[in-house]
Amino acid sequence: MRTRAVSLIAVIAVIAALVVTPADRVDAQAPGSTRLRLGRDTVIAGLGCGPTGRAYLVVHPNGVVDECPLSRDSVVEGHALPKGTWIQQTPEALMFAAWLPRDVELQGVLCKGTGYKGWSVRFHPDGRLASCFLAKDREIDGVPCMGGSFLREMRGSTQVSLQANGRLYSCRVAYRVTIDGRTYPKGARFARQPSGTT
After folding, report:
1. pLDDT tens-digit profile of 6-32?
2. First-residue to last-residue Cα distance in the chain
3. Alpha carbon distance 41, 169 (integer Å)
4. Sign of CA dihedral 131, 135, 138, 144
5. What residues does each domain of the chain span?
């Protein structure tokens, strides 16, 4: 009986936190957003969110979750994401970014993951992968792209960007290579325009 009472109190506290927005819980970047910490798995607006630790779950003013860690392995917009992936959504509930708890393959690309606020992953409005940092060097559309690492980041971003059609847009090359008659030294930024030209 006591366990039920404690559970009911926890549910009421979460609901109250979502309804009442004290000034110290408002996200300065999104007026009216609610920030709170979760101590256990909670479903909010249909999304299963896990414990947030010292970080905050953020809810848009319309009740849609802006940012939270997934409480279990989930498929979100066609992407199989592991438990603990922090996702970010628009007020329309479209995922636009994530932080992966470990390396995860998305659309055939092994994206680097080290947890919340680590290596970011971005998505196009239609849900397709827009950018990530590769877990290791990998060829994408015939271009040897460089994997992400702290030391490599000190020399310039190793983020790989994809076009809305899934084709490579930009990356740093992993080794000296000639593409379409142009030679790129290791670490140079390769970019392909949507028309396919470099």
Report:
1. 333 333 333 333 333 332 333 344 678
2. 68
3. 38
4. positive
5. 1-101
